[in-house]
Amino acid sequence: VKVVFHSAGLDFECWKRLLQRQLPEIDLVAWPEIGDPRGVRYAIVWQPPPGLLTALHDLEVIFTLSAGVDHVLDQPDLPADLQIARLSDAGMTPQMVEYVICGVLHFHRDFDVYQREQHHRRWQPRPVLESKERTVGVLGLGVIGAAVVDSLVSLGFRVRGWSRSRQTRTGVATYHGPDGLWQMLAACEILICLLPLTATTRGMLNRELFDALPRGACLINCGRGAQLVETDLLEALDTGQLRGALLDVLEPEPLPQHSPLWRHPGVRITPHVAAQTRNEQSVTQIAENICRHEAGQALLNSVDRDLGY
Ligand code: NDP
Ligand code: OXD
Q1: CA nearest to 282, candidates 64, 61, 25, 29
Q2: CA–CA separation, 36 vs 57, rounded Å?
Q3: What is the mean pLDDT of residues 139-149?
Q4: pLDDT tens-digit profile of 266-284?
Q5: pLDDT tens-digit map of 4-59
Q6: 302: β partners
Q7: So what's the pLDDT on residue 176?
Q8: 68 Cα nearest atom in ligand 2
């Protein structure tokens, strides 16, 4: 069974070794040196390059090397009947928990304020709020969002969470659907986005949403850059409606040199590193799914193309 692989950032030889250890009959080939494309039924990709989808006529399943699948669904030449399976967790969840907790504590304990004070050689202690006096909201209660809200609850924060369908989590006030969003936002002093990029979530971190937060709220975006309207963020920071933003995902990536976000005092940026997939766990999920597909069984973590995630 020939499987095409494309990822700019991952070690192909390592992937080949790990996949063949689990499925010796797999011939993993790196795009574009794939030889005859006929009969290739599987591709494993992060950001498919132009031409890949049209060259592989016999493709049945595309496995993304990521939790988010926007980079595949955005492809104009994506065949309507192609199945897509994503990675779920794949070692990312504990990393995202660390990242978000780091960001929440950064704002909760005023590190952003003291960084600016230090710059001006000012010594100005502020009262320390207890975590139970702080409301944190999480957009997205999926595999990653659920673990994040649990960890915030364990630190004592007042936690609110939002999803598309109704979800319940111990210690979390949950909201769902468009109406639920506006109810939830009113109290969120720190808002974290862990949503997939879909037609509905694109551009939703915008002025209207920022205005629905308490004045001086903070934003942490770990979903996708295209969920954020950059000009609205800059305006909200400049008027003080938002106090600060920590952005791990940007649009486009890498962030262009001329972007005002690089130098804005209210913005901290990391280069899409909140959570990285672990090779062993990713290979195991994909190998299992190949076996399931070969046996005529439904794929795990398959993407609902209508919902976009
Ligand atoms: P899941 O599919 O498990 O969870 C998605 C969550 O978003 C679900 O709770 C879902 O609701 C909710 N959701 C989707 N659409 C809407 C909507 N229109 N309105 C309200 N809620 C919505 O995904 P993961 O938790 O695995 O990953 C989430 C995203 O995090 C990825 O798509 C990716 O963009 C991003 N990510 C970023 C990383 C980074 O390093 N920065 C690393 C990994 C992921 P419901 O529960 O009802 O289905
Ligand atoms: C992902 C990501 O979606 O790394 O897996 O952003």
Answers
A1: 64
A2: 11
A3: 98
A4: 999 999 999 999 999 999 9
A5: 999 999 999 999 999 999 999 999 999 999 999 999 999 999 999 999 999 999 99
A6: 85
A7: 98
A8: 3
Q: Would you call 224 a catalytic residue per the annotation? A: yes
Q: How far is the CA of 199 from the centre of ligand 2 (A)?
A: 18
Catalytic, out of 158, 160, 224, 268: 224
Given a contact cutoff of 8 angstroms between Cβ atoms, the answer to whether 182 and 212 are in contact is: yes
64, 66, 224, 286: which to mutate for ligand 2, most atoms within 8 A of CB?
Answer: 66
The residue written with tokens 């192609």 in the block is 82
Nearest ligand, measured from the Cα of 304: 1
Whether 6 sits among the annotated catalytic residues: the reply is: no
Q: How many CB atoms lie within 10 A of CB 238?
A: 11
Pocket of ligand 1 (CB under 6 A): 67-68, 88, 92, 140-145, 162-165, 167, 194-198, 200-201, 222-224, 248-249, 272, 274-275, 309
Which single residue is written with the structure tokens 């005092």? 265
Name the nearest CA neighbour of 52 among 32, 22, 66: 32
Cα 157 to Cα 267: distance, rounded to the nearest angstrom: 23
Please work out whether the CB of residue 266 comes within 6 Å of at least one atom of ligand 2: no
Q: Which pTM does this prediction carry?
A: 0.98
